[in-house]
Amino acid sequence: MFSDWRQLPLATDALQMGELAWRGIIAWDKTEGARAPHKGYFKHQCEYIVWGTKGPCHKAEHAGPYPGCYRFPVKQTDKFHLAGKPTPLMEQLVTIVPVGGIILDPFTGSGTLPKAAQNMGRNFIAIEKTSVYAQVAMERVESTPVPVYLQ
């Protein structure tokens, strides 16, 4: 779950209230192009990824160790939603799930995580309540040829 600094405590609480085991926080550095609220303040250059598991955390024997901080700029050509994330960032994040594994995205927005999961050979369950964005997500996923991964 992505969160900025203001909602980080609430995000970690929500994860645990959902009966998930809180496993940690990963920083996403949006690079120097991130916005600053105004002069005299620090830039809001990072978002945080709160992650957890349902049940025990099985080691990702297929890959890793994974970085605790990712650095990807926001590119407007890859942003289809106000809270859109870079596809290359999401492709890196989904690699913790084994090829053929399932990723749940309960706030899919414009479908960046499903697209990244598809690109990386992972399955996904995507949920989006806003019909306009659900349609964008479906179009993005349908426009990507399904790759074949052999183990």
From TrEMBL:
GO molecular function (one): DNA binding
InterPro entries recorded for this chain? DNA_methylase_N4/N6, RM_Methyltransferase, SAM-dependent_MTases_sf
Entry keywords, A to Z: Methyltransferase, Restriction system, Transferase
Q: Could you say which EC number(s) this protein's record lists?
A: 2.1.1.-
Query: Which Gene Ontology terms describe the biological processes this protein takes part in?
Result: DNA restriction-modification system; methylation
Ranges where the DNA methylase N-4/N-6 domain occurs: 23-138
Instruction: Kindly report, in one word, the top-level EC class recorded for this enzyme.
Output: transferase
**Family, per entry:** Belongs to the N(4)/N(6)-methyltransferase family.
- The protein's name in its UniProt record: Methyltransferase
Q: Which organism is it from?
A: Propionispora vibrioides
What does the organism's lineage look like at the top? Bacteria, Bacillati, Bacillota, Negativicutes, Selenomonadales
